[in-house]
From TrEMBL:
Domain F-box: 7-44
Superkingdom: Eukaryota
Organism, scientific name: Penicilliopsis zonata CBS 506.65
Any single Pfam family the record assigns to this protein: F-box-like
Protein name (database record): F-box domain-containing protein
N-terminal signal peptide: none
InterPro entries, sorted: F-box-like_dom_sf, F-box_dom, LRR_dom_sf
């Protein structure tokens, strides 16, 4: 009989092996799941040096099994004075304070060249020193690498980066994070645009400013780009739409907004997933965002404000109706901003978005109770599979527990009727009555009882 253990449990077991590297190695080689946890344990901060103590005859086997590798300087903050001295002596170009803090363990970098990374699919560099020998080794052995994430790559230079890219024919995703602006040159940008295989690109400001100021952006186009994560603080939407016309997934963090910006965005005819996060202290009139209703291909829409900015919208029922009126293929909606809307907005949603499968709302905005009371005899959300909120029903004076139970059951059965395919309901329960409704709904769903 097969026994399944969670990754957390397996890692806990590995922690008891302590410094017994032989046992750790043997266990990790037993199966795929054990191996993943073994690697996780070997690379933990307090166990960072274990990987370099593995017998050389085993290193090649380990390297060929690893799929995802994260080189994070923060994970090796430990280390004795001797290790830090070795790091300082080996990498004199490093800032002295960085070495003194022990953020870099020289042995990690030294011994990485002893492993065969032929099965590696994802790699992340974060605050680590990468020398030329390691770059060449990765380029020679990581031919199947698909995702590359750079975060404060200390000594990366554009020429080194280009050489590495040329050796990675399977690369489809690049994430430029903070500390890598020096890599965004005309040559690098032109190379990425010409390559025509990059499908995922993440750029954070100020990287975007460097890219948008680059002349290559006007003459080259990421025709095959499918996903991007952008932090817009400058008027660059026109340039992005021109450079990335085939994009299907877009995540925006907005620090400014106007009507023209979303009208430009609506030119992305293939866009299927759009996530909009409204930054602090930014108010967005409804008319700014309404043009996205013209993106007929949209299937997933997320609109949210940061924790201190949930009231970024002044939405009314009529505004919401205009927003969803043409989004007939919408399958997932997350509308996590406070608005002045009634059950009429839910009714608009059920009328226009008949294929909606997932719904996330703020509890204070939506009144399912009133909606169901004014509903027709047909289910309002026939395809809905998950919803993250229930109405905050007002407590009422119940005559007795029997009457209370009957009313709660009636409300739960309304959910079952209007959302027949609902599998998951989560809610913040504010009272015993709401809790009872939720429990009865769960029971009805479990027993497949139709009203």
């Amino acid at each position: 009989m097969a026994v399944y253990l969670s990754n957390e449990m397996l890692c806990h077991i590995f922690s008891y092996l302590e410094d017994d590297t032989a046992s750790l190695t043997a266990a990790a080689l037993t199966s795929r799941q054990w191996f993943d946890c073994g690697i996780q344990s070997l690379w933990k901060e307090e166990n960072g040096n274990r990987l370099v103590r593995i017998d050389p005859s085993r290193r090649d086997l380990y390297g060929r099994c690893i799929r995802k590798l994260q080189l994070d300087g923060y994970l090796c903050q430990g280390g004795d004075s001797k290790t830090r001295a070795q790091a300082s002596a080996r990498f004199r170009a490093l800032d002295a304070k960085l070495s003194e803090r022990g953020r870099l363990n020289a042995q990690w970098v030294t011994f990485l060249n002893d492993y065969n990374w032929s099965s590696l699919r994802e790699i992340s560099f974060s605050k680590v020193y990468v020398d030329q020998a390691l770059l060449e080794h990765l380029g020679n052995t990581c031919r199947g690498l698909r995702s590359l994430r750079l975060f404060h790559a200390i000594n990366f230079q554009p020429a080194d980066f280009l050489r590495l890219l040329e050796q990675l024919p399977s690369l489809t995703a690049i994430h430029f994070c903070e500390g890598t602006r020096n890599l965004i040159t005309s040559e690098v940008f032109a190379y990425l645009a010409n390559r025509r295989i990059i499908q995922v690109l993440t750029m954070k400001e100020p990287l975007q400013r460097a890219i948008m100021e680059n002349e290559a952006a006007t003459s080259k186009s990421f025709q095959d780009l499918r996903s991007a994560n952008l932090n817009l603080v400058i008027g660059s939407m026109d340039r992005f739409v021109t450079v990335m016309p085939g994009i299907t997934s877009l995540s925006l963090e907005l620090w400014w907004t106007d009507t023209k910006m979303f009208k430009t965005l609506s030119r992305l005819e293939r866009l299927q997933t759009l996530s909009i996060t409204i930054a602090y202290k930014l108010e967005m009139p409804p008319e700014h965002i309404l043009p996205i209703c013209n993106i007929k291909s949209l299937k997933k829409l997320c609109v949210q404000g940061k924790s201190e900015n949930l009231r970024a919208f002044k939405f009314r029922d009529s505004d919401f109706d205009s927003l969803v009126s043409q989004l007939n293929d919408l399958e997932e909606l997350s509308f996590l901003v406070a608005c002045d809307m009634s059950f009429a907005s839910l009714k608009s949603l059920s009328r226009h978005c008949r294929f909606l499968r997932h719904l996330r709302l703020l509890p204070s905005n939506w009144d399912f109770d009133a909606l169901f009371s004014n509903a027709s005899e047909e289910p309002l959300f026939p395809h809905l599979e998950s919803v993250n909120t229930v109405p905050e029903w007002n407590t009422m004076p119940f005559v007795d527990d029997v009457s209370r139970s009957i009313i709660a059951r009636e409300k739960a059965m309304l959910f079952r009727f209007h959302m027949p395919n609902l599998n998951t309901m989560t809610a913040t329960v504010h009272g015993e009555f709401e809790k009872e409704v939720l429990e009865i709904w769960t029971e009805l769903k479990r027993n497949a009882v139709n009203p």
